[in-house]
Inverse folding.
């Protein structure tokens, strides 16, 4: 299906696959712009996004009837997570534009494909090797080295589907813990810290990046992002340029998160996410146009907005019993709270985040 | 009913009377804070607020059954406009806290009561006189003078229910145009410009005001608000202090708009609105916590947030065929667009607004 050129008119509907907090904040951004949102999710009812959407479809990813009805009611389709089944995308993509497009999903759904894509672009990545089973182990260790991290090629997030290898001797057990899933061994990168760039590309090909943020992870989950990151002017330029390179190579439309290791030898791409990204939540209180609005603008065919940063911000995720700190955060000057409408607090569950303004201007 | 002391927990529901753009932006702010919104309006279905709310009740203000069901489903009730029938408030107020409270509504629903309230507080107002019919005309003109403005005591907004008097001889015809409604004659105030203060008072009695904005009206409708206003430090302090006085006198909970004339003799209160206010829309892109979130925080019993201003902003209302400018505004750097989801553009209808960042820091 050919892409419409005209920007979607006010009142048009953005279809969103997935109904978690990213979908929720995308739907809120759409509402600000006078656009409607319709989420599709096997658990859309009463979900973070379903609560605040004009329409929500609760149906499995395999329900062709529900998918067709959904597609018929929306003007464009986007998503809040990358692991959408291929058959679902085939059906939806035949009816409506899906933005970001299929190429971005193919690349980011598989860690091996992603690494090869980045390498082909001339970008630095961790050393890596494919691992289809125990027979590949020795060759993979020789190529990627140890220590390292063994990861499933598909369906990993927030540290799930990963096993660390302190030394080569642990490799066999680690591989077994992945239960035979096709895997990739990534050699360890000795980095000073991690930053991420939230980049955006419009339907017209224009590219705009938010200021890189500096990330702190714990137990494989992002805990905080701080802007500005401790980068030199040259590093900042590199980060933005390589993000533009990735966006252009994928003919990308929407917002992408690009995680980068900062090393003495330069920036190393850790991973890319074809969607709005947790490390971009600071933009809600640091910029006139946040990552969620930027993504909606792009997928709606609008010109990209002005994402320049007006404040120094530290974003902190509220995970599990971090919610006990709520009374203190509610009363904290300069703190902007964002909660996701999840009924039940669970260990490791992202319940909300707080953007703290460190300095303005 | 006694007021609960504890702040509403995440997942609680704010009931909102009225489902226009103010209700919409209140509901969006509630969502950011993890609170739900349920709007009640005779025309809630597909309304600006109804589109983005978890729940919407479409029923007349007199429908006691629907009102009771609504009250049972919400934790606290607020409103986006002041002309709610008294019987409706009686019924709802018996079931749930209404914030801001009844006193604020009684005062602001009637221009005469409002003027007397302000005068009793020692605040300057335009000279005024009550006018129950033609027999009062001569005495009213003697007291309030001409030129002036004849206004209905109740149900006026955006210049409706008003007639200007250039001279006393026009008074009889002007009064007739109001079709016998109880009226007030307000003498003309010779002012340099108008500012408004968006003030907030928490359930704990804390008061916080946003920086005063400078307003431009055309045909009785607000066209733009600019911050900072051209006020001296002393005028700025006066504006904030008198707003605090009004909020405290009403034992107010929530956000209030206070319109002030700036005259050589000091600030003159034009009118007060017991709700979020069009002249406070700039706060969405000029402050960490906007007026809508501040109002939700107050009515939910949360501590007030940090409304300090980080940017200079000009807010422009998009009224009627201002919507033709949309393509240009979409592409304008530093412009944040807010659209209300109204399907039909009509003359004089507020369709959205744009906040332009003039300078940051």
């Amino acid at each position: 299906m050919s892409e419409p050129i005209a920007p979607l008119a006010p009142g048009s509907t953005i279809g969103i696959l997935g109904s978690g907090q990213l979908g929720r904040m995308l739907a809120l951004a759409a509402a600000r712009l006078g656009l409607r949102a319709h989420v599709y999710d096997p658990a859309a009812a009463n979900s973070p996004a379903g609560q605040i959407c004009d329409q929500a479809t609760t149906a499995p990813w395999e329900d062709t009837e529900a998918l067709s009805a959904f597609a018929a009611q929306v003007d464009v389709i986007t998503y809040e997570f990358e692991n959408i089944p291929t058959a679902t995308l085939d059906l939806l993509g035949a009816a409506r534009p899906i933005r970001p497009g299929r190429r971005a999903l193919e690349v980011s759904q598989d860690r091996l494909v992603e690494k090869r894509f980045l390498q082909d672009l001339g970008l630095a990545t961790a050393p890596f090797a494919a691992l289809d089973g125990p027979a590949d182990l020795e060759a993979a260790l020789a190529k990627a080295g140890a220590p390292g991290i063994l990861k499933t090629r598909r369906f990993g997030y927030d540290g799930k589907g990963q096993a660390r290898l302190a030394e080569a001797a642990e490799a066999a057990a680690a591989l077994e813990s992945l239960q035979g899933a096709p895997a990739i061994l990534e050699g360890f990168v000795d980095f000073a810290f991690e930053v991420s760039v939230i980049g955006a590309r419009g339907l017209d090909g224009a590219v705009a990046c938010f200021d890189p943020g500096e990330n702190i992870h714990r137990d494989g989950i992002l805990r905080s992002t701080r802007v500005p990151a401790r980068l030199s002017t040259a590093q900042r330029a590199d980060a933005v340029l390589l993000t533009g390179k990735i966006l252009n190579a994928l003919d990308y439309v929407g917002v992408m998160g690009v995680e980068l290791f900062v090393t003495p030898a330069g920036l190393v791409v850790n991973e890319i996410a074809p969607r709005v990204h947790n490390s971009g939540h600071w933009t809600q209180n640091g910029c006139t146009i946040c990552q969620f609005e930027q993504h909606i603008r792009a997928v709606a065919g609008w010109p990209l907005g002005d994402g320049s940063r007006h404040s120094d911000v530290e974003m902190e995720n509220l995970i599990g019993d971090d919610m006990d700190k709520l009374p203190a955060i509610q009363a904290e000057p300069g703190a902007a709270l964002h909660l996701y409408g999840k009924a039940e607090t669970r260990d490791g569950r992202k319940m909300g985040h707080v953007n703290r303004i460190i300095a303005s201007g």
Observations:
- Chain B has a mean pLDDT of 93.
